[in-house]
Backbone:
């Protein structure tokens, strides 16, 4: 029995070094040689080479001049250190009707209609009022973007066509034509928007 | 449900069925000690490991010795993890100074009960996480204390499954292999060679892999954001491949740095299923009748498809409580992105989220790309049920195979009598000892899930008590009404089943939950492994009975139906009353529009 | 044993006396000590006791009548569940007990005449006889105990044991020397050396066996018991935890948690009471069925093992062939007329009373040769002697001889005749085709020809063996014949293999070889030299006419000494296992329906909008049962009644058909698996209707 424990200790140490140190460090080395940008977070920079975000991580957009992402329950919204979602079930009153500290579907839908000046007869895309699992979802749907387009156009004094053209350009199709969902990266769309003359 | 959604589900399972055979064959060759593709490089490393650890690689162990090795190794490695976690503040690769005086405000303290819970959790292949990775773990803890376990706990599971198969094929030999060599071979011939390209593929899609400190910056719209990094890709690969499931970040595979695109999502799901699927072929090959493995794979595939389609159907149908606000809450055939999107990422959508939820609970993985707590009641029911069936649909690496073998033994025993012979499985008579061990296996799961949930649902603590600062056990729930009960039931099911996913609303980081869930994980792992190895030992001492036309055919379509029935009846009936009070009644209430 | 006999005995399953006795036994078996051995029924007993106590408590507390009515009915039906299971077991034991009573009655009265040391005799009670005592039994006296005939020949009526009224001969020496206590000497007398001590006699053992006094659980039964106990605990956990669970659930709605009556009802319905209640009855009935075939199994284990048999070793003589060779052809030597051969063959066989001899006489008639009486003066019969292997007759100066080929050829050569090549060839042909050539010669013409004696394979054996093959059982014929003869008969009978020139040693070797290959072997045997093989075989059936050694070595004794019965024994073994499997599957499949009766009843009020409507879980009431109380009652009543309904099946066994495992499984899976899943739905529904019609349960 003692021998078994001694063997266990030795094998634990050997395997821990192989799988817990050598393997991840080798991968890190290879990854940084082969995919430097991706391995370090697919960062985006502004003109001054200052980091303004990661292509993959959603950001909070509260100004009306920007397309807004999905609601986020990560911290106070898009807090990348507190990734996570609502964890509320389908029969949760808090989720549906909200409370004084918490915007439910009801409030989120109302706000969305208000900001984008949509009347009640228009259906809101479900993802525009629901929070993602990570709270960092970088994408919105095409329908969501299109509903926001008039607002953007009016705030930025652009023609609506220009905005919708930009949206069309930014639609990311399904991989291989059928894997995943079509979507639009909000950060990149907004960056493109800022680049418009 | 949309056409494309269904296509993706069938595309996924087809890929699995395609890879199962070649990989299964490779695993077979590795475990038989045959020469394989990588033997040239790996054989010397294998020998070096034996020399370094002073292992007698020729020894043939009986079941008792094998079990002792499994337990001893698990305890020692668990202790290593516990120590690494407790002292993580003193160790290197801690760029954010967790546990030090200058730690950032968001950092979570590493308490002994959390370290205990985490050490058990990773040793038992559960990867239940009472913590959020990015605010609790140093980089060294992630790689050395946790990722290391992702390898060896998975390898241990596979080793046990192989030992069980050896019990069936041994003809009065009494030995079932050598745990040390099984463990080593599985780690370096199977897991590592798959992980290396897998990790690099993940990086190529955007999964991060660096040792950088967290990065704080001002976003486009002038908010502050801090990005956390780490050695994610290397850990992500083994997290899924080894059906471990412990995320680097709190959001697990929903986090864009862990799972940035639909392609990585597909890769991750494939890597979760592939070893369990391949092991059925290895099994068939080892018992010299691949039809036996195909039968098990068929059972798995059928239950998987039923579960996936049911989940997908209900998730796509969405939550009718959204209706009053004129939200496009249900998917329609045009394929627009309706459905229950709460807690789901847009890039995965309803189909891939439902699929992932089923994949991760069919196996003992527990990685999530959507929030299970936010699933519709029926979607949640399927995930719960998958775990409660014993995770035998593909199942954990190894644990799925030995789990379904236990069910096969029970099926053969119950119905095999109907052909008028003492039941036999794979040429071994199923008698007292085998039945006893199989029943123990079922009993322990039922005990741990039901009794612990019962305790948690009625126990009372004073508010702010040491054991549970929330007060009574049900105060830790994030939901009230039936869904709250589901959260509790899910927690103990997940830990007992060594799954690790959660209805994450439950705030489980208190000594009461950390310890009780820790015990559940311990029971769910070792008190399952011991009976199955004992069964293997008993089988290995029996003589092989040659099959004849009078033998119960365990590869026919009839056996497939039978096995499915036994899994559903024995597994599901045990938990049906409890499920009635959770997801089932919630489904009815949701349709009535009742809110809690 | 005749068919009539079987019928007479099987009718007695429903014998009134047995039923009456079983009814009383059902209550006696309520003893918790006995019930503890059956974990499923023990749980039901505990449940019944708890509900009984609570029921009386509630009377005192002054509950409403309709609640008390419900509680009373639940309590009563729980008791019935236990009683029905006890009744099933008592029924299974019933016939054995009745038989044991008869045996005991005979035994008590018997007196014996024992020889004393001084050479005188004394009259003593049979039960006081010890091993080694010598007794004298005269005509019309009962043999007092088991023993060995040491002097005398007598015809004995063994019907007390075998049910067969035709007397058998018992004589000293050889294989017919064993006598059994309780049988009656019909004529002449016997001097018997008692071979067992009191209480160990065959009759005693038989009484114990049929009574099931020291019945031990078989390995498969034990394994099944573990499964059932395990399931019971699982369901106990599932039901017991429901109470704390529902406490949580009822926090958010104003109704009260389910009461113990419902919880106990759910538990009793879920645990496998059907198979739990019938398991021991199935086992007892299985042994009883073997007994109906006049085979005494020393243990249930042996019967079970019979079902698993892969290889049957069957003695050629008596099992596969009729046991006596018959003349089927006369082959003449060159230049001899067939009439002359027939005539000589008949003459030489006239005094031969063996079946072979008789068959020659009869066969000769086909050639117009009449049977004749010869006067003693001119004729001398030469009896068969083992040394010369020749028999014959001398008529005046003519010597006719017939016998084994070599011996007669030598006889002819000795008398100066040549052996024609043609005859030699014919003789070889006969031997090769499985027959026995008997050569005939005389001292005038030399060799006359040969008689083809053939082993006649019993009718229907080929089909029988084909059936066995389809069940995966291999048959091996054991014979002392040479390989050529054996091969011919083997192919004619359709056995899979044969062992020729069998000796006790190579028989043993064959058994061991089969067993090393993982196969289970069954065989029959009677001689002392069969004893080791009988002991080695997994199922050894000894013939009752056989020696004491053989009877002790085997694990079954065939009272009729009919080796063919081995096949029936195998079938009974299979049937026993099948019955167990079928009822287990049925029992477990039943649970699904019961959930759909009890769970909506229990939680139907949960989250109801108000006290007058049902809550959402009432939707699980897919059978449309009337009310919570009627639903629970209907499930409990169904659960109890199904035991009674299935008693005949448990006692008679499921219908046995010889087919391969795949088809058998398909058939039984459909009947008992699917049937078990579906049957309770209409069953519970009907009971619910009746309860409401009888006002035993509220309508809503």
Residues:
């Amino acid at each position: 029995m003692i021998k078994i424990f001694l063997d266990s200790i030795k094998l634990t140490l050997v395997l821990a070094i192989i799988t817990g140190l050598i393997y991840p460090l080798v991968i890190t080395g290879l990854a940084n040689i082969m995919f430097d940008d991706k391995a370090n977070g697919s960062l985006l920079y502004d003109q001054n080479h200052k980091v303004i975000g990661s292509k993959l991580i959603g950001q909070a957009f509260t100004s009306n001049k920007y397309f807004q992402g999905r609601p986020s329950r990560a911290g106070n919204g898009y807090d990348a250190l507190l990734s996570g979602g609502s964890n509320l079930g389908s029969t949760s009153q808090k989720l549906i009707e909200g409370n004084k500290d918490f915007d439910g579907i009801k409030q989120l839908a109302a706000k969305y209609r208000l900001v984008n000046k949509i009347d009640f007869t228009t259906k809101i895309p479900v993802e525009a009022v629901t929070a993602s699992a990570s709270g960092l979802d970088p994408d919105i749907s095409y329908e969501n973007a299109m509903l926001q387009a008039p607002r953007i156009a009016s705030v930025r004094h652009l023609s609506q066509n220009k905005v919708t053209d930009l949206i069309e350009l930014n639609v990311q199709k399904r991989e291989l034509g059928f894997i995943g969902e079509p979507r639009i990266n909000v950060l990149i769309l907004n960056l493109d928007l800022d680049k418009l003359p | 449900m949309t056409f494309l959604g269904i296509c993706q589900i069938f595309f996924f399972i087809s890929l699995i069925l395609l890879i199962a055979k070649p990989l299964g064959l490779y695993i077979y060759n590795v475990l038989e000690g045959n020469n394989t593709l990588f033997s040239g490089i790996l054989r010397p490393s294998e020998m070096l490991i034996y020399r370094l650890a002073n292992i007698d690689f020729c020894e043939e162990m009986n079941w008792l010795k094998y079990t002792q090795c499994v337990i001893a190794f698990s305890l020692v490695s668990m202790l290593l993890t516990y120590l690494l976690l407790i002292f993580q503040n003193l160790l290197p690769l801690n760029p954010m100074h967790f546990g030090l005086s200058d730690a950032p405000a968001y950092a979570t303290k590493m308490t002994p009960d959390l370290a205990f819970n985490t050490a058990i959790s990773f040793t038992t292949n559960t990867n239940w996480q009472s913590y959020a990775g990015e605010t609790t773990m140093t980089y060294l803890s992630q790689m050395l204390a946790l990722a290391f376990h992702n390898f060896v706990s998975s390898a241990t599971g596979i080793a046990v499954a192989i030992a069980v198969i050896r019990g069936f094929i041994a003809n009065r030999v009494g030995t079932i292999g050598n745990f040390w060599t099984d463990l080593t071979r599985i780690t370096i011939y199977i897991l590592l060679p798959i992980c290396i390209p897998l990790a690099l593929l993940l990086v190529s899609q955007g999964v991060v892999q660096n040792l950088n400190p967290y990065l704080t910056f001002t976003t486009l719209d002038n908010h502050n954001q801090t990005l956390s990094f780490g050695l994610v890709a290397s850990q992500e690969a083994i997290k899924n491949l080894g059906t471990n499931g412990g995320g680097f970040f709190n959001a697990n595979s929903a986090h864009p740095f862990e799972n940035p695109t639909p392609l990585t999502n597909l890769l991750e799901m494939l890597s979760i299923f592939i070893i369990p699927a391949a092991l059925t072929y290895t099994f068939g090959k080892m018992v010299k009748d691949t039809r036996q493995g195909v039968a098990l794979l068929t059972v798995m595939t059928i239950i998987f498809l039923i579960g996936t389609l049911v989940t997908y159907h209900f998730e796509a149908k969405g939550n009718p409580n959204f209706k009053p606000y004129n939200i496009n809450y249900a998917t329609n055939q045009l394929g627009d992105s309706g459905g229950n999107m709460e807690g789901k990422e847009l890039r995965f959508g309803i189909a891939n989220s439902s699929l992932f939820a089923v994949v991760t609970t069919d196996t003992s993985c527990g990685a999530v790309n959507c929030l299970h707590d936010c699933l519709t009641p029926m979607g949640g029911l399927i995930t719960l049920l998958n775990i409660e069936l014993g995770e035998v649909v593909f199942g954990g690496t190894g644990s799925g195979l030995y789990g379904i073998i236990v069910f096969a033994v029970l099926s053969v025993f119950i119905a095999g009598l109907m052909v008028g012979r003492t039941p036999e499985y794979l040429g071994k008579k199923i008698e007292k000892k085998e039945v006893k061990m199989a029943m123990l296996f079922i009993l322990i799961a039922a005990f741990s899930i039901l009794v612990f949930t019962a305790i948690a649902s009625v126990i009372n603590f004073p508010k702010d008590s040491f054991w549970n600062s929330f007060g009574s056990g049900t105060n830790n729930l994030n939901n009230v009404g039936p869904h709250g009960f589901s959260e509790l039931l899910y927690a103990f099911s997940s830990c007992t089943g060594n799954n690790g996913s959660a209805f994450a609303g439950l705030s489980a980081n208190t000594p009461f939950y950390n310890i009780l869930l820790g015990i559940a994980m311990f029971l769910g792992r070792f008190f399952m492994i011991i009976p199955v190895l004992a069964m293997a030992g008993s089988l290995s001492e029996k003589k092989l009975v040659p099959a004849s036309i009078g033998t119960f055919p365990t590869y026919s379509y009839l056996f497939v139906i039978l096995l499915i029935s036994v899994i559903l009846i024995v597994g599901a009936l045990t938990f049906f009353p409890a499920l009635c009070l959770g997801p089932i009644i919630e489904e009815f209430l949701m349709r009535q529009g009742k809110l809690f | 044993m005749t068919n009539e006999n079987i019928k007479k005995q099987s009718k007695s399953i429903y014998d009134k006396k047995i039923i009456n006795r079983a009814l009383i036994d059902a209550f006696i078996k309520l003893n918790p000590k006995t019930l503890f051995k059956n974990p499923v029924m023990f749980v039901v007993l505990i449940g019944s006791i708890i509900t009984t106590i609570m029921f009386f408590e509630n009377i005192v507390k002054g509950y409403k009548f309709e609640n008390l009515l419900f509680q009373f009915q639940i309590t009563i039906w729980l008791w019935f569940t236990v009683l029905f299971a006890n009744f099933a077991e008592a029924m299974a034991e019933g016939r054995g007990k009745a038989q044991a009573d008869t045996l005991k009655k005979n035994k008590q009265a018997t007196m014996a005449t024992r020889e004393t040391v001084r050479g005188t005799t004394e009259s003593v009670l049979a039960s006081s006889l010890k091993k080694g005592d010598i007794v004298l039994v005269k005509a019309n006296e009962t043999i007092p105990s088991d023993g060995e005939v040491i002097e005398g020949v007598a015809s004995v009526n063994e019907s007390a044991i075998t049910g067969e009224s035709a007397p058998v001969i018992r004589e000293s020496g050889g294989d017919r020397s064993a006598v059994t206590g309780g049988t009656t000497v019909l004529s002449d007398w016997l001097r018997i050396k008692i071979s067992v001590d009191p209480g160990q006699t065959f009759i005693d053992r038989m009484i114990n066996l049929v009574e099931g006094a020291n019945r031990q659980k078989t390995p498969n039964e034990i394994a099944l018991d573990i499964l059932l106990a395990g399931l019971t605990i699982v369901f106990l956990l599932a039901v017991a935890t429901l109470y704390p669970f529902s406490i949580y659930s009822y926090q958010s709605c104003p109704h009260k948690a389910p009461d113990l009556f419902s919880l106990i009802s759910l538990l009793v319905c879920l645990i496998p009471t059907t198979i739990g209640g019938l398991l021991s009855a199935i086992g007892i009935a299985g042994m009883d069925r073997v007994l109906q075939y006049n085979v005494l199994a020393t243990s249930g284990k042996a019967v079970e093992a019979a079902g698993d048999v892969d290889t049957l070793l069957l003695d050629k003589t008596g099992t596969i062939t009729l046991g006596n060779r018959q003349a089927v052809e006369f082959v003449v030597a060159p230049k001899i007329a067939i009439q002359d051969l027939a005539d000589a063959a008949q003459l030489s066989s006239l005094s031969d009373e063996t079946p072979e001899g008789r068959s020659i006489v009869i066969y000769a008639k086909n050639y117009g040769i009449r049977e004749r009486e010869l006067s003693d003066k001119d004729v001398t019969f030469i009896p068969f002697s083992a040394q010369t292997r020749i028999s014959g007759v001398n008529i005046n100066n003519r010597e006719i001889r017939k016998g084994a080929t070599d011996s007669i050829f030598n006889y002819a050569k000795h008398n100066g005749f040549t052996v024609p090549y043609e005859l030699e060839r014919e003789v070889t042909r006969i031997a090769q085709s499985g027959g026995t050539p008997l050569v005939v010669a005389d001292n005038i013409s030399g060799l006359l020809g040969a008689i083809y004696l053939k082993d006649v394979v019993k009718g229907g054996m080929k089909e029988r063996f084909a059936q066995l093959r389809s069940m995966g059982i291999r048959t091996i014929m054991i014979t002392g014949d040479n390989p050529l003869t054996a091969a011919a008969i083997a192919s004619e009978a359709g056995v899979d293999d044969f062992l020729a020139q069998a000796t006790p040693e190579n028989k043993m070797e064959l058994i061991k070889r089969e067993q090393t290959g993982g196969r289970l072997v069954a065989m029959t045997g009677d001689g002392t030299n069969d004893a080791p093989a009988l002991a080695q075989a997994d199922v050894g059936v000894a013939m009752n006419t056989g020696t004491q050694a053989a009877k002790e070595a085997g694990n079954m004794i065939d009272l009729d000494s009919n080796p063919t019965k081995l096949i029936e024994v195998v079938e009974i073994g299979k049937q026993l296992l099948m019955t167990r499997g079928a009822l287990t599957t049925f029992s477990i499949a039943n649970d699904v329906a019961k959930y759909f009766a009890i769970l909506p009843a229990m939680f139907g009020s949960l989250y109801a909008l108000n006290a007058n409507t049902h809550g959402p879980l009432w939707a699980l009431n897919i059978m449309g049962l009337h009310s919570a109380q009627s639903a629970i009652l209907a499930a409990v009543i169904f659960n109890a009644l199904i035991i009674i309904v299935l008693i005949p099946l448990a006692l008679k066994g499921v219908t046995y058909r010889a087919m391969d495992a795949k088809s058998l499984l398909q058939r039984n899976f459909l009947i008992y698996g699917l049937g078990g899943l579906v049957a309770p739905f209409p069953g519970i529904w009907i009971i619910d209707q009746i309860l409401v019609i009888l006002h035993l349960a509220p309508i809503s």
Remarks:
- Residues 65-109 of chain C form the longest helix (45 residues).
- Chain C has 26 helices and 22 strands.
